[in-house]
């Protein structure tokens, strides 16, 4: 089943991200899954939790209407190709995890070649092979059935609360203002996280 995301929206997503690649294609399909199951953020408020910082997060932001600035796109630095989506109106949600074996040997070969290309040790032939594999893998992601591409399960976390307007406080070390919820107290002083980390050295 080829992606149902309109080609124009895919082009806008590529332009927003800066290039097309297999990682962006994964995000496009994860966003499509969200749209299929929960709709768009403009229809009913959504929350997206991404457990990776890979290229696909930009596609999720572009296509679902969730964003960091609105507080409904949350990044968890787990290094997993897993994405959780919630709809606030009825708390419906799901977690989608990319099938790590979907690309088979082709995926392993692409990863090997990408490492060599990025380290500058790939031959000209390997660079050509790598680019060809990346384009092929991107198309496989965009053409796959969503239910074959992702395993879908119940969310592993509760739906995050909506964003709140919080009080600001002043760091007593650098004198810069910060959200109260991000402040730290040390030796009787209110500190921002960077200043706290400079004085609270455990090792």
Produce a short descriptive summary:
By secondary structure, the chain is α+β, with helices and mostly antiparallel strands. The protein has helices spanning 7-17, 22-38, 56-64, 104-119, 124-143, 146-149, 193-199; strands at 46-50, 73-75, 82-87, 92-98, 150-153, 168-170, 177-179, 184-186, 189-191.
What does this structure look like?
By secondary structure, the protein is α+β, with helices and mostly antiparallel strands. Among the domains are: 7-102 and 144-153, 2-Layer Sandwich (60s Ribosomal Protein L30, Chain: A); 168-199, Wheat Germ Agglutinin (Isolectin 2), domain 1, CATH 3.30.60. The chain contains seven helices and nine strands; from the N terminus they run ααβαβββαααβββββα. It has helices at residues 7-17, 22-38, 56-64, 104-119, 124-143, 146-149, 193-199, and strands spanning 46-50, 73-75, 82-87, 92-98, 150-153, 168-170, 177-179, 184-186, 189-191. The protein has a five-stranded mixed β-sheet with strand order 2-1-3-4-5. Strand 3 and strand 4 (92-98) form a beta hairpin. Helix 1 (7-17) packs across helix 3.
């Amino acid at each position: 089943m080829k992606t149902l995301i309109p080609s124009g929206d895919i082009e806008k997503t590529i332009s927003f991200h800066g290039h097309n690649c297999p990682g962006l294609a994964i995000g496009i399909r994860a966003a499509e899954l969200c749209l299929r199951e929960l709709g768009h953020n403009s229809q009913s408020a959504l929350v997206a939790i991404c457990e990776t910082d890979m290229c696909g997060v930009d596609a999720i932001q572009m296509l679902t209407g969730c964003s960091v600035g609105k507080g409904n796109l949350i990044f968890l630095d787990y290094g997993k190709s897993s994405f959780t989506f919630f709809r606030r109106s009825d708390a419906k949600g799901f977690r989608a995890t990319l099938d790590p074996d979907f690309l088979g040997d082709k995926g392993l070969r692409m990863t090997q070649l990408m490492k060599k290309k990025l380290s500058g040790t790939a031959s000209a032939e390997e660079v050509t092979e790598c680019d060809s594999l990346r384009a092929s893998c991107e198309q496989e992601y965009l053409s796959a059935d969503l239910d074959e591409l992702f395993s879908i399960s119940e969310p592993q976390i509760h739906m995050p609360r909506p964003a709140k307007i919080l009080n600001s406080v002043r760091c007593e070390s650098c004198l810069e203002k910060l959200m109260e919820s991000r402040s730290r107290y040390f030796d009787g002083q209110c500190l921002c996280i960077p200043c706290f980390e400079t004085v609270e050295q455990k090792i």
